[in-house]
Design brief:
This protein is of the alpha/beta class. About 40% of the residues lie in helices and about 20% in strands. Strands 1, 2, 3, 4, 7, 8, 9 and 10 form an eight-stranded mixed sheet that branches. Strands 5-6 form a two-stranded antiparallel ribbon.
């Protein structure tokens, strides 16, 4: 299965006064932080809410530790200015253990339908901590030109259909073929300061090689993982170290295969929908 990271919407514990039309509501979020996503959040998503309700929303993008630190300080001082929090499930679980979040059990949202599994996740220690807000995953985007260079035994249908043949070894051999044929590396990852390479390590390749996200980080299986990455590295585009999203490198054909969050390859697919195939990540010795 694909590893999914869930962003959610919550209300903090010490918010006791309702927000009325003409007032402002502070929405702190670790999600939609990149500039283009902030523009959407402010000019489309939250503007629509403000127009409908008369309540203005101040969108406050924050890094994960900064949000936790600020919210903890505000709750401790009993001077809470943050009304809503957008965070990942794991971050909200931590906040809940520190008693920073309200119980939302009595809140109903008419004309909304939520997947039961997400509703179940939102109940932590017997308290409904959040309302599911968005769900996303990570994918590989492939310029269809790359399919000309598939390694022997691997077909387009294997990659797009996630067959047993679509493995990390196959990705390595495919990347070698591209490098040899096009005289340079054509595989890219978002490894820049705000890129999501850490999600690839933690949520994808580590579990695929070790069977765990963290428990077997120093196992012999993990050694095989790092040996694999060492072998793959020459075929990664050197600019991966500064890229924070892969849509532009894909559009410019600096890379023909890239891994990233769906939101960060979206522009490439929107601009040139016929040029790209969106495929699952490969499988490793312990699965996909």
């Amino acid at each position: 299965m694909f590893r999914r990271f869930i962003a959610v919407l919550v209300i903090t514990l010490l918010l006791t006064l309702p927000v009325f039309a003409g007032e402002a509501l502070n929405f702190a979020s670790t999600q939609m932080v990149p500039a283009a996503e902030q523009i959407f959040a402010k000019s489309v998503l939250l503007k629509g809410f403000a127009d409908e309700s008369g309540i203005n929303v101040e969108f406050i993008p924050m890094e994960y530790p900064d949000l936790f630190t600020r919210l903890s300080a505000e709750v401790f001082a009993q001077k809470v200015t943050i009304s809503l929090v957008g965070e990942l499930h794991g971050g909200l679980d931590l906040m809940n253990t520190k008693v920073l979040l309200d119980d939302l059990s009595g809140i109903t949202l008419p004309n909304r339908t939520f997947i039961k599994a997400l509703e179940d996740y939102s109940v932590l220690a017997g308290k409904k901590v959040y309302v599911p807000w968005m769900q996303a995953t990570y994918v590989m985007a492939v310029n269809k030109k790359a399919f000309q260079y598939l390694p022997a035994g691997l077909k387009v249908e294997d990659v797009t259909g996630a067959s047993e043949k679509w493995t990390y070894d196959a990705l390595l051999n495919w990347s070698k073929n591209l490098n040899d044929a096009l005289k340079g590396p054509k595989l890219g990852f978002p490894m820049g300061p705000k890129g999501l390479w850490h999600r690839f390590l933690h949520g994808y390749i580590y579990p695929s090689f070790t069977g765990y996200q963290a428990a077997a980080f120093d196992s012999l299986r993990a050694v095989k993982l790092w040996e694999y990455l060492k072998e793959l590295r020459p075929y990664m585009h050197p600019s991966s170290s500064v890229w924070e999203s892969m849509d532009e490198p894909l559009l410019k054909e600096e890379v023909l295969i890239a891994w990233d969050h769906t939101a960060r390859v979206k522009n490439a697919v929107i601009e040139k929908p016929e040029d790209f195939a969106i495929v699952p990540s490969p499988r490793g010795p312990q699965g996909r």
